[in-house]
Amino acid sequence: MTTIQFIAAIIFGIALIHTFAAKSFERLAHHHPKHAGLLHLLGEIEVVFGFWAFVLIVVMALVSGGTAALDYAESRQYTEPLFVFVIMVIAASRPVLEIVKSLIATIARVAPLNTAIAHVWLCMALVPLIGSLITEPAAMTLAALMLAPLVFRPGIPEWLKYGALGVLFVNISIGGTLTSFAAPPVLMVATTWSWDSAFMAANFGWKAALAVLINATGITFLLRSYIKKADAEGNEQSAEAGMPLIVSLVHLAFLCGVVVFAHHPVIFIGLFLFFLGFTKAYEQFQSPLILKEGLLVGFFLAGLVVLGGMQQWWLQPIVASLEPTALFFGALGLTAITDNAALTYLGSLIEGMSDAAKYMLVAGAVAGGGLTVIANAPNPAGVALLRQGFEDQSIGMLGLLLGALLPTAVAVVFFLAL
Fold this sequence. Notes:
mainly alpha; 0% strand
């Protein structure tokens, strides 16, 4: 352990505490209007890790010199933050959203349930599983936008909103495990351990699908009396609004292109620039793009990359020292305080891991992906899109943790018992 590694660990701990205290800053802003601007900024969960990453770079420059600080910042891999930003904006575009809404509305109409209840269940169950094809960040974006007017709105108890948020985050985290490219923690080990999509579906996917269905059914049952039919009808009307087929197909082509070239930022950023040009050329078929929300999420994840890169000295020995079952629960707990993709990446560097240990590491990492906002890369996207529906327009991390405990327990049972 070097001096800067020790300092980085302290700053990382402060950033974690800050995420849990973010809602308190929003409350302070209402009581101290003179400093409301600064307090609101510090209360933005998406700003937290970016802010403390900047602090780390400044401290590193003072301790180790400016050149060392710049070399470290430039040595980090920022592909994931860039990808999440791009996929969020494209997935939330009106043509893509209306295609998914039409699909959900069609299934909901033939389901033997109240249409609104069917909408919520499908958004909690089907969309997270679709994330195995379109990636988890895209699934999170689509599910959050469709659930916002149905569940995350006035009139629904705050505890139920946190329960729904916990289910959504857990289902997104485990729902992407049917393939080898959609879930960030799986992606980190798939090539190194030769895990293809067939392996993922056979060893993880079907278990995850069962847990997703149970979680979605449970939260929908609790929400059933609060969901209004009028909300579903409004969604159906929106989904049925006229949209030229060619425009929808072009947007889907951009989405698919970004997914295919997810590991090549030069290509998917180029595609994104063409996408922006297309939306400008046919802006009569567009809604405002969520550029601000996407940038905030990208900033959060980039900050996590900078801060997390200095934690390997204490994280990797813990992962390497645990037996398979202990490793599962260790990964489950560590995921709550660090990105699950970073955790599995550290595991992929360990020589001689048994097949059982590999399974337990990834299973624990994805099962715990809904516990905190930093546990899984798509979570900040969900926070950015849904926080307006909570009190003080802010999501408390303790509330999220409590809301995610039960669906996490369901995932644990299926990954361990089956």
